[in-house]
């Protein structure tokens, strides 16, 4: 199989490319810049130059493949509506090319805000008011009626591992800057997490095996209490661990404050039953305790 991958040089996408190539498949990776193109080629994939806003490049990539994995996204919290619009246009462009082929169209979504107050499952449909991207998953699933095999993979908000520059890395940077590792109130709210390699393996399985219309959760840990995350960061940096009031969260954590205070556990039960996926890599606390998050940043 030949698979077109957007976000191929990214945190999760590069792992997906490696997983697909390791399974004997060909990969065509979208690359916006020379640096991204070099990264994709270094992985062993072919390169399709273009961007998420260049719909012709997306159509060309999809036309040269049997299936597609759409992981590219503009993660700019100041332009959430615009980012979601670009994402939707990309999904529609790639899906239209795959129409009638029976090929897979795997897209990324998230579990954050899925089911406030309880553990979210793959059967839950989040409120579109939570994030404008929610409607895009529904648009992707609608391609099942057009001869495509759509699959939505909802990722845990924390996809961790060596080299992570996401939420956990931001928490570490905040703790280093403030001189304390903080959690909000009692720190009992829970964050789901998954190791990067386990996430990449699930996407590979989604491309190759998942039934059309599937919604999968790339979640290895249902919910890690945020106090435990703060304590692991405190150990790693050798700084005090403190509780802060919710009213001070935005001042302390900046943009991350609204996320770190959320209680957002999510299940992977249906995903594992449907695909046989079994996460094997270290959990979030074990990954933090390995120490790579605390290596001195290169200035």
UniProtKB/TrEMBL annotation:
Pfam families: Epimerase
Domain of life (superkingdom): Bacteria
Signal sequence bounds: none
Domain NAD-dependent epimerase/dehydratase: residue ranges: 3-206
Protein name per its UniProtKB record: SDR family oxidoreductase
Organism: Angustibacter luteus
Lineage of producing organism: Bacteria, Bacillati, Actinomycetota, Actinomycetes, Kineosporiales
């Amino acid at each position: 199989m030949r698979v077109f991958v957007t976000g191929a040089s990214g945190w999760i996408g590069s792992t997906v490319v490696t997983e697909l190539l390791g399974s004997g498949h060909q990969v065509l990776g979208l690359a916006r810049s020379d640096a991204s193109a070099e990264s994709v080629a270094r992985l062993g994939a072919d390169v399709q130059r273009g961007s998420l806003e260049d719909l012709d490049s997306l159509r060309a990539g999809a036309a040269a493949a049997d299936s597609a994995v759409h992981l590219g996204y503009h993660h700019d919290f100041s332009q959430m509506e615009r980012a979601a619009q670009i994402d939707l246009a990309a999904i529609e462009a790639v899906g239209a090319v795959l129409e009638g082929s029976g090929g897979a169209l795997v897209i990324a979504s998230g579990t954050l805000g899925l089911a406030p107050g309880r553990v979210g499952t793959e059967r839950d449909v989040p409120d579109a008011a939570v994030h404008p991207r929610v409607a895009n998953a529904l648009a992707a699933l609608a391609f099942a009626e057009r001869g495509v095999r759509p699959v939505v993979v909802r990722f845990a908000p924390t996809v961790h591992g060596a080299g992570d520059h996401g939420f956990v890395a931001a928490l570490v940077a905040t703790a280093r800057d403030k001189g304390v590792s903080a959690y909000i109130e009692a720190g009992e709210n829970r964050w789901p997490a998954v190791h990067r390699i386990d996430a990449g393996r699930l996407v590979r399985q989604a491309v190759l095996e998942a039934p059309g219309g599937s919604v999968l959760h790339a979640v290895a840990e249902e919910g890690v209490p945020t106090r435990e995350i703060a304590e692991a960061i405190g150990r790693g940096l050798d700084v005090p661990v403190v509780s802060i009031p919710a009213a001070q969260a935005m001042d302390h954590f900046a943009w991350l404050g609204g996320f770190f205070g959320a209680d957002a556990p999510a299940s992977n039960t249906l995903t594992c039953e449907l695909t046989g996926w079994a996460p094997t890599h270290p959990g979030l606390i074990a990954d933090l305790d390995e120490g790579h998050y605390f290596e001195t940043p290169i200035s």
